[in-house]
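Hello,

Our lab assistant flagged a job as stuck in the queue for most of the afternoon. It eventually completed. Since we weren't sure the result was trustworthy after the delay, we are filing this so someone can double-check. Below is the sequence as submitted and the structure that was eventually returned. Let us know if re-running is recommended.
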Amino acid sequence: MEIPKTFSLDELCVLTDLTKRTVRYYIQIGLLSGPIGETRAAHYLAEHLSTLLRIKTLTESGISLERIREVLTEGEEPLPTRRRKPGSVDVRSHVLIAEGVELQISPEEADLSPEQTRSLIRAILKAYQDIKEK
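-- returned structure --
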């Protein structure tokens, strides 16, 4: 399938699985540049699509929009470790394995894709079940 060189907002949303509201919000806060043109004639380029897919991947990994802004503007790859500052917030996912057993994951530090994270959780759940059955 050949991908067109320009996209309408609707096409961009279908390709990225993001809502119009989310795309507009990313434009509003400066994570994504605005469309070319105005009103119904407005269109987006492959760069918009690429940026949105990168933002989506990073947000699904649990990375804050503030940190994503830094990554996009500084072009850092892979994500460097940020020094924690007083008052900073650390986002972690807590996965209940069983009563009294909880897995804590920091998506930014774990360097795992969302798919890898889900695989890890499934493997840990299976290992726990196997241990309990023995």
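-- support follow-up --
The delay was a queue issue, not a problem with the job. The result is valid. The longest helix spans residues 114-133. Residues 6-74 form a domain with the Multidrug-efflux Transporter Regulator; Chain: A; Domain 2 fold (CATH 1.10.1660.10).
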